[in-house]
C-alpha cells in the first residue's frame, strides 16, 4: 500500500529516557524528518525492537519537537509489553516509525482564549498544542487530571509556556480538586468565555467534557486514543461511529469535533 498524506517509514534513534512520574517515562528521539513535519495532535507508529512475537507498532503522540536539532520528545504511561520495552530501550537504539499520521488540532480564526484539558497520559498530546497556542498569542488555561499528586506531569513546562490558569484534579484528592477534570471544567466553561476547548484523556473524561461544552455552547475538540492496527487506514481497527458515519481515528482523526462523535 502506498503512503497516504506525507507519512513515511522514517529511521529513528533513541537519545535517552527518564522517569517522569511513577509509571510514566519521557523519551527523546532523534528523527529529523519527523521533527520538521509533525504538527500538534498528529501521531506516529513506532516499532519497538526486542520481541519478535510483537508484530504491531505503538501509536504515540509527541510532547514537543525541535526541528533545528532534529529531535522529538514523547511521554508515555507504561501499560503493557510494548510500552515496557520502549521504556527500557538503551540510548543509541535504532528503530523506525511511520509518521506523521492523522490530523492534528485546528485553530479557529480569531481565537483569543482556549481551555486545554489533559487527563493521565492524555497530557502528552496537549503539550505540543499548548506550545502552539503560546506562539499564536492565544490565552490558554489548563486543567490536568491525574490519579494522585505524584502523577501531575509537565507542570513547570506548562507554567513556563504561559498558561494563564493551571488547575489540577486528582482522583484521590491528594492535590487540587478531588475527582475528575469534569469537576472543574463545568464551572470554567460557564464563566470564562472560551472560544475553544481542547481535550485528551480517558474516553469517559472526554465524553463528560463534550457534554459540558455542548450545554455551555462552547466548541470542543477531542483527541481519541482507540486501539490501532496499521495507523494509516488499511485495517479498520480504529473505526468509530460519528454523525457522519464510520470514521477511522487514524486517518480522519485522532482529533475530532466533539459534536461529531457518537459517544
Ligand atoms: C493516536 C494515539 C496516540 C497515543 N499517544 C500516547 C501518548 O502520547 N502517551 C501514552 O502514554 N499513550 C499514548 N497512546 C496509547 C498507547 O499507544 C498505548 O498505551 C500503547 O499502544 C499500549 O501498548 P502496550 O503494548 O504497552 O500495551 P498493550 O499490551 O497493547 O495494552 C495494555 C493495556 O492497555 C490498554 N490499552 C492499550 N492501548 C490503549 C489505548 N489506546 N487507550 C487505552 N487503553 C489502552 C489495553 O486494553 C490493555 O489493557 C496513544 C494511542 C493512540 C491511538
Ligand atoms: S488503525 Fe488501521 S485503519 Fe486505523
Folded structure, characterized:
With 263 residues, the chain is of the alpha/beta class. The chain folds into two domains: 8-101, Elongation Factor Tu (Ef-tu), domain 3 (Beta Barrel), CATH 2.40.30; 113-260, Nucleotide-binding domain of ferredoxin-NADP reductase (FNR) module (Rossmann fold). Helix content is 22%, strand content 34%. It is built from seven helices and 16 strands. The protein has helices at 32-35, 81-87, 123-135, 155-160, 182-191, 203-216, 249-252, and strands at residues 8-21, 24-30, 43-46, 58-61, 64-66, 71-77, 94-101, 113-119, 139-146, 165-170, 177-178, 196-200, 220-223, 239-242, 245-248, 255-257. The strands form three sheets. A seven-stranded antiparallel β-sheet has the order 4-3-7-1-2-6-5. The two termini are 31 Å apart. The structure holds flavin-adenine dinucleotide and FE2/S2 (inorganic) cluster. Flavin-adenine dinucleotide (FAD) binds at residues 43, 58-61, 74, 76-77, 79-83, 121, 124-125, 225-228, 254.
